[in-house]
Structure formats: C-alpha cells, structure tokens
Request: fold
Amino acid sequence: MSRPVLLLTRKLPAAIEARAARDYDAKLNSTDDPWYRDGAEIARRAAAISAEGVLCAAGDPLGAATIGALPASVKIIATFSVGYDHIDIAAAKARGIVVTNTPEVLSFATAECAFTLMLMAARRAGEGERLVRAQKWEGWAPTQLMGVTLEGKKLGIAGFGRIGRELAAMARGFRMEIHYRDLHRAPPELEQGATFHDNDEGFLGAIDILSMHMPGGEATRKWLNAERLGRMRKGSIVINTGRGGSVDDAALVAALSSGHIRAAGLDVYDGEPRIFDGYFGLENVALLPHLGSATIETRDAMGHRALDNLDAVLIRGQAAPHGLA
Ligand code: DGY
Reply:
C-alpha cells in the first residue's frame, strides 16, 4: 500500500524524522534550509509532491495566502508547537484542512524556561555572566550585583493555562504567593490557593513579578503597554515566554530604562528572530532565543504528538486527537 505524502518544513529531532520516513513518503528538510520562511515556497513545495500532510512549526507563515495556495491534496496541517498564531485557522477550515497542535507535552519545559528567566532577572545572572565572560570581574564585593530574592514575592501569572499552572507549582517551592489573571476563574483543584483577579488593574497593582503566558494574535497584541506597565509597582519584574507580540517593546524599554521595572526576562519577540533594538543597550534584561520547549525530551514528545495527529487523519482516517479546525 502506498504511504501518504508528507512535507516537513523544518529539521526535526532524529527519532521524529525516522518515524516520519518509516510511515510516510516524507520529504524532509534535514538541513533546515530556510525556505520555510516563505509561505509561497511552502505551498509550491507541497504542490510539487502533491502533499497530503504538512508538518510545520512555530513561526512558519501559514496565513490565508499560503493556505489558499496549498494544493487540494493537503488534508492536514500539523504544527510542531502548541501555539498556532502562525496559522490562519479560519482559512484552513474554509478549505476543509484539519489543523492540529501539540498541547500538554511542553508545559513543564516552558514553565522551567519562565522560571529560569525569573531567576536570571531577579538575581542579575545575565549581567554576572557577561561580567565574568568579559574577564572584567575583580573579585567578590559586598555590594556587587545585588538582586532580589523570589522568596515571599507575589508572582502574577497572566494566562493560567497548563504552562501557567506548572509555573505556579514550581513557584510554591520558592515560597512565592501566586496571583493569576485569566478570563475565567479556575476550579479550586487547579487554583491550589492562588488568588484570581478579574481585572488587569487590580492584578498588576498587586504583584511583584509578572509572567506572561497568553496566546498570540490580535486579542493580546501589545497587551503589556505603557499604561499597564504604569500600573505595576515600582521595582517589579516582567517575564514573557508566551508570544512577543503581547509586549509593547518601546514601552517596556522605557520602563526598564527609568527603573520603574527593575528587570525583565524575555524568550519571545515581536517579529522574531528580529529583536527590538532598545533591549540590546540594557543590562537589566535577560534575552533567550525562544528556548521555551527546547529540551530533548519535550521536542521528542512534541514530534510524536504531531505524528500521532497525522497518523490519525492520513493513515487511519480518523479524527485528529489534537484538532483545532
Ligand atoms: C510553541 O510550541 O508554541 C512554542 O512557542 C515553540 O516551542
């Protein structure tokens, strides 16, 4: 029996490429050649092989124009990510194309990344590392690079989904007080004593550290703007491992420069891999290259989840377990 034709836009972990090559007539991109940055090229390559499935990743431009140009053979777009703001779900639905993502398996890893940034920002780890690496450290000093402790601080989680709740569990170990903002209050078994806020003003004014875990897209675009930053307490910390578009970069740079915001830790950027210039001149911001889910274990689990979705639709003719459209 012939195997379904699958286009992979990105280089994936070895075990995932091996499984794809075993079960599909798979066109791999094992050199991670950057043609995936061009939506028209994705569609052209899908058409050239009459792909039945497209396995894409976060940031690949699967907007309405790309989806409109895909060949009629495409039945499913499986993204190797939990976020799907790079895919026009309505356009896919209109063409009868199933879209799937990889929820759950990256929650702990992404929360770990947020916690890493929280510690880096609070304890000035980026500054310290740069000092040592520049061979400018002259030895221990009583007042050198003093940060703040996380113990006893009020952590405000914006977006209390799986990742936000994993972060809350970690933060309890650091004796932090958990506050959260979401559209709806979580049931007590998920809340675990965290304080729910039903408005941004009360939430932002109550916390010492903001960790952002909101989905991307127009609804959250530039959510953290000058006005909301102004509502935060002086000396607060901002962490973002959600989507870069949720932050007004010029406003955050101004707040970091004035000291109103003590420090920030960012893993995601508006228009990444481009990064707002203003961050580069600041010592009090830790910048990571979108490492949220980047553990060997998690990337394997994401790949298997993406292939499970493809198998359901293209091999077994069933509904995808993690279908979005
Ligand atoms: C996602 O899965 O949406 C991440 O941003 C990539 O790990």
In short: The radius of gyration is 21 Å. The chain is about 35% helix and 15% strand. The chain has two domains: 5-105+296-315, 107-287.
